[in-house]
Amino acid sequence: MRIGLIGAGAVAKYHVEAALALPGARFTAICDLDESAAARAAKDVEGVQFFTDYRALVESDDVDAVIVNTPHALHLPMAIDAARAGKHVLVEKPMATSLADCDLMQEETAAAGVKLAVGHIQHFLPDKVAARALLEQGELGEVVMIRDQRSTDYRPGTRPEWFFSRPIAGGGALINIGGHCLDRALWFGGAPAVEVSASVAQRFGVPVETDGTIALRLANGVGVTIAVVSDPPARSDLLAIVCERGVIEADPRVGTLVRVDGHTRVVRDPDAGDIQQAFTAQLADFLGVIDGDAPAVPLEHARHVVELVLASYESAAAQRSLQIPLRAEVPA
After folding, report:
1. What is the rounded average pLDDT of the residues 250-275?
2. What is the CATH number of the domain that holds 222?
3. Which of 179, 194, 260, 316 ranks highest by number of CB atoms within 10 Å?
4. Do 75 and 147 fall into the same domain?
């Protein structure tokens, strides 16, 4: 499978290395408006075509599938153009910036007869995979509560300017970092959300939210609390999964730990190659989807993450909790 990458941003190097590592894939093309960024991402890779117009990449005869790694509002048009050119599509999270766009993306790829997958990397990170395996063993019983704490940085100059544009990014810290939290909360919680309550803060003089909290009630009764905070004294990425007979903590920098009846044990230690391992596993999953396998991240799950981000924004603006589902036409 010949892979083309659209967008040479921060995680582009992981996508490139994943394609180089898998025997069923070959990295053949990369596109970015900044040719130097594309060159850096594909450094030392032989036979790669470079493009500054993504439409030329998707029309290339040397590309079978594309990875869309671009600002959020561009996911839909790029996915549609790729699908109409007969290319399979892996689109980075969030799937899109509105539910209508999520639905249209699915309709267009299905009509074109190509496969679509959404890159929610949390499902492939080794610390989360270890936590999932521990849950499935049954030792801890059912999940009863989830707490998720994430730090980020939305100060001016800390990230590309498009992140601060609501029309392009779809929002701020919640659609970006909060999307990861919602994804893994739903995955470990084991059910869709039926109620959401959120609040946001807008600091540093930027036009999008920099901080936020989200509380979810899942259909199975599991309660979820999520906090995303910009520029705190200490960085955090801690997912706590509270079960009937113990608590799991997963943190990519600390590893996966479990505490049962007053005793803590390490399930998995972190490794310097964990992020690359996750991206390689994600691409392997995409190749499986192209071959007809079920995806690790169902499209309805990816759509629901977008739905909950939009509901969080609406809840914060209205200062009240909202029932799910939202109307499909609600924009970001």
Report:
1. 98
2. 3.30.360.10
3. 179
4. no
